[in-house]
Design brief:
The structure is a homotetramer.
Chain A: H1 3-14, E1 22-23, H2 28-31, E2 39-44, E3 49-53, E4 59-60, H3 65-77, H4 96-102, H5 113-126, H6 130-142, H7 151-159, H8 162-173, H9 181-191, E5 195-196, H10 198-204, H11 224-237, H12 243-249, E6 254-256, E7 261-266, E8 270-275, E9 278-279, H13 286-298
Helix pairs in contact in A: 1-13, 3-5, 3-11, 5-8, 5-9, 6-10, 7-9, 11-12
């Protein structure tokens, strides 16, 4: 299928510059992004490429990186990982803290902030130098030695990070954080600061469309079963309070970030990454979600 | 694939009679079921059949019927249905009432009790005689004129139904129930009283594996897009607090009932129904879930 | 002290007709009350009387009657009453349903709706004809045979009472309602429909300022200890989410109703009743609370 | 009245050594206290003294100190203090975090941890050296230059203080903490580390029974109105989830600490302090509460 024509057609329908959404504004590095940026990149498991717009421009992938941290922790820990974090959707954001209390410090899933903090704690326990080990893992998966943290963003996140500090202290009060809070938070804020372009994103996550095998190196990143389970978690928990909406309208497992990026997986077919910085009220890229909805409708292809 | 061998192999691994789960006991009709019953029936979209155990014995399908009520209401109302009920997973059961208050009487999704009550209210508004119209719809979908309500079970549900009465009164206090409470509750309790065998269940739900088309009559029950969306809702909301667990381990959209039944859909492939009356702590069939986990592992087939 | 001068002085400070509050509007009988009505009546334990404004006009005392139901149930049941209802303040209204779930159907205190419903259930269990027995008790306490229910108001309450129906069904699902729901609700809605003037109110509740003894008949209504405990419950739970505010500013135990009435007790001194129909956002009489704040400031008399 | 005889009589009824409660164990300094310790000291506003048992032995007053911090902040800030903290009881402990979210970072009252942290933040803003200024204030109020912090306890609290760190970070994320988190927490943990005997406690808090005037120096600590309001806050919020229970059974404003101390005020009469280290499930001194219940029953004296 000629995806580029589909991209182009949908893009002109969307009228991105009239998007009523708002760019994330809690740190200057996100606030100052040009809100009209728009990029798409689709990579098939046979390494065919389709791109459109600002698909080569790097942006802050933010929470999308949590999936990669999950993959690495799951690979290293196996199923005993699930003693420290659940696999259930989280319900409303409103309930995040009360649920943590109700569940005695076990976050509902690894893709909400609380869960990602526990994943970071696990990686901090595993490695002497977790930041370095993690970025090397990402570079390997993406077959790209240039992927890196952005220390300016990591620092800004730290200055605005009182809510994450509240979460990690609460989890630690239940004993589910083993390391020093400042070390784990530093790793977490670096994780969220990684920058990629749509092209890099879709290449990096392609192994989840290929049952865990990196298509560039044929290396097994994680097992078939684990790869499917990571996709299942994205399907149920990848969009905060809008996981249902995304599943309902797009019908693919995916993950969003407040930088305006979304990555979605069609197992055994492709990985697609979209970037549009304005967010809807739930914190997901407004046009990114609409684009993917029209895309799976147009191509009549979803997992359901 | 010879599914029957797979069924048999898994069944002997499970040791159903040692299942630590408990049969539902809030009404006599469920409490008195033989807990060792076990049946499976798989129907492919080409109408091949594979069955095992007590697959021809009728049981109370309970909440599984909510999917059929949703399908009928969605068919009749179209997308404006979603003004009255959401498509998001519900988080913990513990929060059900507080979420209804927080969301001003809009239930999180149509498969939790609160949402199914709103769906019932919609059908009561649509039909002069909703119970009769609904069962005729089910008979048509299942190509089976013998499917019926069980009035004994419906009456028992009514006598034990204070929690559902609390929910519907709360929703009505927000204006999201339009009809008389007793009429809607009567329809709801009848809906939950429908009895089917595994064979009937897997045949009835096969249209959701066939993109909305009834394979026996070639009639379009609902559109492709609506069929996919119903599957997406089952994926995210079909197992109460365990939707994540089921997605993670089984990897198919599905729906359970407290009678011990589970129906699951592999789009474009098959519909499978399992029955094992003992429930786990979340109210889902304990062996039914385990069976399906081993089945999708063994056959290496899930949507992820 | 010449209380009447104090009443008059405060009344002119208040500018009742500029009150930004709103009259309760969920039933016509409350909505149609003249919002500028204002009355006060203070009765000392020596039976001195001080009145001002519309102090002889009857209005709907609503939730104030819950204190009288509590007194009668406490008198009959003694301390075992507290197995079925707590004595703790309820926190935010927002949490009312979740708290009932968390506390397994035991309402936090007898003055919130949930608790008053349990008190009504207890009285329904005690009497053949609870409505008649209760009104006779109120007539005895008030030394006034004319006090009565208003059936028009009770009927209107019933038609608007979905939230109370939700509460009582939820409590019944936990087993803490023993009688038929419709019978208990009928008693409850009648209880809330009682009409009194400020004069009648302050005379009726005077026994709580007199350590449980009815000053007109010298009959012991309840023991000293029980009388003090009822005052303590009013102090902590008498004003919904504003119990703290009332304690802080007025410093007396009291109880409000959505009809705009407030009754407050100065133990061993007096009982005062105020009526001003406009309510603040928490559902308490706006000018009634302000009047009592200025009154205890002016007379330098509170229990603290 | 000869209070000492009453003390003695009640003490022998209580059988302190059979108390099923548990000494606080989250820090070694509290865990290692002799659980059979028991002391009482009552000081009347005329400076009569009645003591019993270990009334001269110092213990950690813990949260009781929050009242003194409130008094100092209220004195300095006046009524604008209430823009940053409420005066309502908090309902269940379970809800503490969700309420803070619901109320956008405004704690329900100044005696729960969240509220005391805001009070500490206010004092940190007011003083160059808040720890020194505060202890001087306490020494002045108590007319006792020996009152001091215990740095060993403060350090232990800090090491176990993840939950308080979670609270203060959450409040800061809403903008209701103005200073550096570590500075405020250091002040808070020191505040909780103050040590006093029952004798010192009852002398220190006597000004709240004397309408704000220090009986030893005749200095006005706070105004009559503020003193009454602090008592009202203690009445509604002084015992966590058991404020209602304490009001109901004891009928005096008071405050407890996890060190096993309780101070209670009878306005215009006396201040009484009790110490018994074993706590009930709500975190209040088990025998301390029972002792005060029997004491106000025996002396027939409560504010209600």
């Amino acid at each position: 299928m000629n995806y580029i024509e589909v991209f182009s057609k949908i893009y002109y329908e969307l009228e991105v510059s009239n998007d009523p959404g708002k760019v994330a504004s809690y740190i200057p590095e996100l606030r100052d992004v040009n809100p009209d940026k728009f990029g798409v990149h689709l990579t098939t498991i046979d390494d065919d490429h389709y791109e459109f717009g600002d698909s080569d421009e790097k942006f802050s992938i933010q929470s999308i990186a949590k999936v990669l941290a999950l993959v690495l922790a799951y690979k290293l820990e196996g199923e005993k990982l699930w003693k420290r974090v659940g696999v259930e959707p989280s319900g409303t954001a409103f309930n995040s803290l009360v649920q943590l209390e109700y569940d005695l410090g076990i976050p509902r899933n690894p893709l909400i902030n609380a869960g990602a903090l526990v994943i970071c704690d696990i990686l901090v326990s595993k490695f002497e130098n977790p930041k370095q080990e993690f970025i090397q893992f990402v570079r390997k998966v993406s077959d790209n030695p240039d992927i890196d943290y952005c220390s300016r963003i990591a620092n800004s996140e730290k200055l605005a990070g009182y809510r994450n500090a509240a979460l990690i202290n609460l989890i630690k009060s239940f004993g589910n954080i083993k390391n020093d809070i400042d070390v784990v938070l530093d790793f977490y804020f670096n994780l969220c600061s990684i920058e990629m372009s749509c092209k890099e994103l879709s290449r990096t996550f392609l192994f989840l469309a290929a049952y865990g095998v990196c298509p560039y190196t044929n290396e097994v990143i994680i097992s078939v079963s684990k790869s499917k389970r990571v996709n299942a978690i994205m399907q149920l928990c990848g969009f905060y309070d809008e996981a249902g909406e995304f599943s309902f309208k797009v019908g693919l497992p995916g993950k969003s970030g407040v930088g305006g990026g979304i990555v979605a997986i069609h197992p055994n077919k492709y990985c697609i990454a979209v970037w549009s910085p304005r967010l809807n009220k739930k914190g997901n890229s407004n046009m990114g979600m609409k684009f993917l909805e029209l895309f799976t409708t147009e191509t009549q292809a979803s997992i359901f």
